[in-house]
Automatic annotation (TrEMBL):
Listed name of the protein: Arylsulfatase
Signal peptide: 1-24
Residues in Sulfatase N-terminal domain copies: 33-403
Natural source organism: Allorhodopirellula solitaria
Organism taxonomic ancestry: Bacteria, Pseudomonadati, Planctomycetota, Planctomycetia, Pirellulales
Pfam families per record: Sulfatase
Family per similarity comment: Belongs to the sulfatase family.
């Protein structure tokens, strides 16, 4: 091994070691807070007014930021939903595991029983744990979900005490709720069938009855029609169990309020996993037309309303000063993601990713730098932080705040950044971060300090210009950016700093092909 590479690997090892042994924030066991993680879907850094949006206002998110810490360098670990959600729960980069790309409708459970999660760790610390909203991490055994029977393994087998779910994501079938182990309100006389191929009988699809759709598709979303919207995949039956798209946000708030009310006298962890602002964007009628940005903007203010309702419940139950709230998103923004909902045509001057390049599906900053806020009234000093924090770090950080040790080999990529999350002295955040797009073999962004290396294993990148339709652009295998001078990632300086590039390439190889010490 040459001297340069040896020095690089020694540096990264030291960086890993320091990060992973960092002492947790000093939280007294008697004041361990309830914990709520609110995760939006496809919400960009620039989609909220506290981060500079002017085309719409998000007063409840702004209030959360004003009462807590707004992170300018907050990230999710991937620019698509399933890998970010996997990494958030497990504290492990999704590229280390098979089957962690965007999950299809009949995906079996991606996180298997026995794997530690933030829910199982907080459960060991005495917390009652629940998840409400979008799941999209698969259900059932190797053969996939038994939609008419018990849906296990699922959230209850990996640490959650209860769940009320959208089982996949709403542009994929089926449009039903899952409560704990079963499809809610399912009539046994009308069994639910879900598949990848159209059933032999004549069932309407976005192709056969396109003229009947209340929201037309632009690409890909032309399978079974439900509620006037065609989806990815096909399903029949289960009619009594089907929901109306417009009612999703209300249902998430209703079930979250029930969970908080039922557990207000003991420590609880709630994962509020909203579906807004993912496609198909069909907000409740009371939000439709309330912004100039079309249904995408309307869905943003619907999500903001959800945040406000949760905060109202905490106030009503007198829990605001005993609850740590973390707000984030599963990836960056996208405008046209398969439906003709006016997102591009009505966008105007709005920049969904703020100043950043890229969005969903991209390893540019806009794909993974997202709104990130923490609030614990009376315990977190309001302010702004440029500490680098990531959703993958919540497993280690929330465990530290709860006083729960993490078993060896569990949550191996999660760094305890609890001091940064709580605004405590020494809260510098993590020193490096790997960003991915989707699945095991894809593209990577590697940020260390001011430097950002791009590595394209698939030879392409998507969605570099969010305000246009998705497009594929050929790129070099590697690019290097100085985020301090060029946060928009417009000027590739790979040839100007070959030694920096070589070091980052070597370190990224160690991380992707190996495991964090």
């Amino acid at each position: 091994m040459n001297t340069t590479l040896s020095s690089a690997l020694t540096a990264i090892a030291a960086c890993f070691f320091v990060s992973l042994i960092a002492s947790p924030a000093d939280v007294d066991a008697a004041e361990r807070p309830n914990i709520i993680v609110i995760m939006a879907d496809d919400l960009g850094y620039g989609d909220v007014s506290c981060n500079g949006a002017t085309a719409l206002q998000t007063p409840n998110i702004d209030k959360l930021a004003a009462e807590g810490i707004r992170f300018t360098d907050g990230y999710c670990s991937a620019s698509t939903c399933t890998p970010t959600r996997f990494s958030f729960l497990t504290g492990e980069f999704a590229f280390r595991s098979k089957g962690t790309g965007i999950a299809p409708p009949n995906s079996p459970a991606i996180i298997q029983p026995g794997m530690e999660t933030v829910a199982s760790l907080l459960g060991k610390a005495g917390y009652t744990t629940g998840v409400v909203g979008k799941w999209h991490l698969g259900l059932g055994g190797e053969g996939g979900p038994d939609w008419n029977g018990e849906l296990k393994p699922g959230p209850l087998e990996i640490g959650f005490d209860s769940c009320f779910l959208l089982p996949t994501t709403n542009d994929r079938v089926p449009q039903v709720y899952v409560e704990n182990h079963r499809v809610a309100n399912l009539d046994p006389a009308d069994p639910l069938w879900v598949g990848r191929k159209k059933p032999s009988k004549d069932h309407p699809t976005g192709i056969s009855e396109r003229e009947s759709l209340k929201m037309d598709w632009s690409h890909g979303h032309n399978g079974t029609i439900h509620n006037g919207i065609s989806r990815i995949g096909f399903y029949t039956g289960g009619n009594a169990a089907r929901f109306r798209d417009e009612d999703l946000a209300d249902k998430w708030v209703e079930k979250s309020n029930e969970f908080m009310e039922q557990n207000q006298d003991k420590p609880f962890f709630l994962f509020f996993s909203g579906h807004d602002i993912h496609v198909p964007r069909m907000p409740h009628e009371r939000f439709q037309g309330k912004t100039t940005l079309g249904y995408r903007g309307d869905a943003i203010i619907e999500f903001d309303w959800c945040v406000g309702e949760i905060m109202k419940t905490l106030d009503r139950l007198d829990l605001a000063e005993n609850t740590l709230v973390v707000l984030t998103s599963d990836n960056g923004p996208v405008l046209d993601d398969g439906y003709k909902d006016g997102a591009i045509e009505k966008n105007g001057d709005h920049r969904a990713a703020g100043i950043y390049t890229g969005g969903k599906y991209s390893v540019h900053e806009g794909g993974t730098r997202i709104p990130f806020i923490t609030r614990w009234k009376g315990h977190v000093e309001p302010g702004e932080s440029d500490a680098v924090v990531c959703t993958i770090d919540l497993a280690a950080s929330l465990s530290a705040i709860a006083g729960q040790e993490i078993p060896e080999q569990a949550c191996q990529d999660s760094v305890d950044v609890s001091k940064a999350l709580l605004g405590r002295e020494g809260g510098e955040g993590r020193q490096w971060l790997v960003q991915q797009d989707n699945g095991r073999r894809g593209n990577y962004g590697f940020r260390k300090g001011k430097w950002k290396l791009h590595r394209y294993d698939s030879g392409r990148t998507q969605n570099v210009v969010v305000e246009e339709s998705l497009r594929v652009s050929k790129v070099p295998e590697f690019m290097l950016f100085d985020l301090e001078k060029d946060p928009e990632e417009q000027h590739d300086v790979l040839d100007d700093y070959p030694e920096v590039a070589a070091q980052l390439k070597a370190e990224l190889v160690e991380i992707v092909q190996g495991k964090s010490p």
